[in-house]
């Protein structure tokens, strides 16, 4: 007799969504996770809680005209689907965009989800109407950030646990998917020693026992490889240049990619493994939680971006425009880092840090703290703390002192200070008029035509060398690991395909393990706010399909 109607591997967001959908249908679920209970919600807990939504009341209040047609055109421009194995990813993408323009917001709102009223404009693109990027702002920040998303499903899951429908088995590391007659029928592995390490901190791997569970459906929702830099380097594609020798790590160490290999051993087909999403604005966390802990800057459009030699990055490699295009360019410069040069006025208004713990006002749903963002000359507390304690910051009152500090910090002799000075001075000359030939300056003026950017995300245009806006600040930017865009190939029910092209009975996948749907619904690039949303959508699809299969 089976131990449950379904087994879910992974207690992150996708796993929680799948498990609660099963429990809502009256099915018995076992949730396995190698980490302690305090990590319930996985990576999503640490996120800013951004969600890709289309044609919302929040957009309309800010004067943004969006549509499913425009969003789908943007998605296709970003994804660049060009492979035979993109059949299912493209179908997932089209369904996801329709969901983001339809039921998604109401479904979440019915559970108590709320949205911060200013919609962010992430991944602006900057090339052409058919190219990569969001034509309009679509990044809806959850009021409560990542924990505010997780709590919607954790609350339901814990209630189902009390009712006996969900059984959580933490510290259970899956080492094998069991098969019988061609179907996946369960999972077995090692029981790990209890560990009271705080959320995100690496836990022990001491084995204290073994386990084996059986169920007619097994959903793999175990995440990707972002916490394992060596696996990231192994999968690094030639189109992005050589893999960096030095990276900071954007997710906890338990995002280790183990289950992808285990699923492959069981016959599952992994596709698009060379597609990945890593940021180029990473900071070394001065107060780290996991090994190599990095934090991403979510920049507004005004900082001057230089490579390690002091040369300005070409269009459209501007802050917040084209993450992977910028990454590919920087991998040709011979360095694993680059620089922002900015002012106190810019950092105050334009620097946000990704992560729930870096935004206590939004995470804590504290309007009084939020209001302080608009007062005075200081940036938010976490940003000012990085400016004071972070290893990647240089602050100076004059350009000569700033450039000398950058040279000292880099310590490799690569920076040409005269070249960097020319870039700063040339940029400043473009600010004499309300129009310019410089495409970044044009982009700043364009951004401020959007009410949300003018209010909270884009500083009034000014010269970097204007002392009224000082001090000057330089920030060394590191490459930061984040997401796996490829994954286990699935149909629209989340059922996993085998190497022979046939569905493996009993095996499903969701979240990052499935490339957020189909084996990579983002294609080559993402539009942001789509990772949490991909976990929600694929977890819902696979959970409902497994519940239906259970009868």
TrEMBL record:
Organism whose genome encodes this protein: Camelimonas lactis
The protein's name in its UniProt record: FAD-dependent oxidoreductase 2 FAD-binding domain-containing protein
MF term (GO), any: oxidoreductase activity, acting on the CH-CH group of donors
Tree of life domain: Bacteria
Lineage: Bacteria, Pseudomonadati, Pseudomonadota, Alphaproteobacteria, Hyphomicrobiales
Cofactors that this protein relies on: FAD
Gene3D superfamilies: FAD/NAD(P)-binding domain, Succinate dehydrogenase/fumarate reductase flavoprotein, catalytic domain
Keywords: Flavoprotein, Oxidoreductase
PANTHER family reported for this sequence: 3-KETOSTEROID-DELTA-1-DEHYDROGENASE, KSDD-LIKE STEROID DEHYDROGENASE RV0785
Annotated FAD-dependent oxidoreductase 2 FAD-binding domain residues: 5-532
């Amino acid at each position: 007799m089976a131990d449950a109607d379904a087994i879910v591997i992974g207690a992150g967001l996708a796993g929680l969504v799948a498990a609660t959908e099963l429990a809502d249908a009256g099915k018995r679920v076992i949730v396995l996770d190698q980490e302690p209970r305090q990590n319930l919600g996985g990576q999503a807990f640490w996120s800013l809680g951004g969600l890709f939504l289309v044609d919302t009341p929040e957009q309309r209040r800010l004067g943004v005209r969006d549509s499913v047609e425009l969003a789908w055109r943007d998605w296709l421009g970003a994804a660049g689907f060009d492979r035979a194995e993109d059949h299912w990813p493209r179908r997932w993408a089209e369904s996801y965009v329709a969901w983001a323009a339809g039921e998604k917001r109401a479904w979440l709102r019915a559970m108590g989800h709320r949205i911060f009223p200013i919609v962010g404009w992430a991944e602006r693109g900057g090339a052409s109407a058919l190219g990569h990027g969001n034509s309009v702002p679509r990044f809806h920040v959850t009021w409560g950030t990542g924990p505010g998303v997780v709590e919607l499903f954790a609350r339901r899951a814990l209630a189902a646990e009390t009712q006996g429908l969900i059984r959580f088995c933490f510290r259970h590391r899956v080492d094998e998917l069991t098969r019988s007659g061609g179907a996946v029928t369960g999972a077995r592995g090692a029981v790990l020693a209890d560990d009271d390490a705080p959320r995100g901190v690496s836990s022990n791997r001491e084995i204290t026992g073994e386990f084996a569970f059986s169920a007619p459906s097994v959903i793999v929702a175990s995440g990707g490889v972002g916490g394992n830099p060596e696996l990231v380097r192994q999968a690094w594609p030639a189109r992005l240049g050589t893999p960096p020798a030095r990276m900071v790590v954007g997710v906890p160490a338990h995002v280790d990619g183990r289950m992808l290999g285990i699923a492959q051993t069981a016959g599952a087909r992994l596709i698009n493994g060379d597609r990945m999403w890593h940021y180029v604005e990473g900071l070394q966390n001065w107060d780290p939680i996991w090994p190599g802990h990095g934090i991403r800057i979510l920049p507004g459009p005004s900082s001057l971006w230089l490579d390690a030699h002091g040369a300005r990055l070409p269009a459209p490699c501007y802050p917040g425009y084209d993450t992977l295009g910028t990454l590919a360019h920087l991998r040709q410069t011979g360095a694993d880092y680059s620089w922002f040069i900015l002012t106190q006025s810019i950092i105050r208004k334009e620097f946000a840090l990704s992560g729930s713990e870096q935004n206590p006002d939004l995470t804590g749903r504290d309007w009084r703290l939020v209001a302080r963002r608009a007062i005075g000359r200081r940036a938010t507390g976490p940003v000012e703390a990085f400016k004071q304690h972070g290893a990647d910051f240089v602050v100076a009152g004059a350009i000569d002192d700033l450039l000398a500090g950058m040279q000292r910090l880099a310590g490799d002799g690569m920076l040409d200070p005269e070249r960097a000075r020319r870039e700063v001075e040339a940029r400043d000359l473009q600010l004499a008029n309300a129009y310019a030939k410089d495409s970044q300056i044009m982009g700043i003026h364009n951004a401020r035509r959007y009410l949300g950017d003018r209010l909270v995300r884009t500083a009034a245009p000014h010269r970097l060398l204007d002392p009224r806006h000082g001090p000057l600040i330089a920030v060394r930017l590191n490459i930061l690991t984040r997401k796996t865009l490829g994954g286990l190939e699935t149909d629209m029910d989340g059922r996993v395909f085998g190497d022979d092209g046939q569905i493996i009975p009993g095996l499903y996948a969701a979240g990052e393990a499935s490339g957020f749907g189909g084996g990579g619904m983002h294609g080559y690039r993402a539009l942001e706010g789509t990772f949490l949303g991909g976990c929600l959508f694929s977890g819902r699809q696979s959970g409902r399909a497994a519940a239906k299969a259970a009868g």
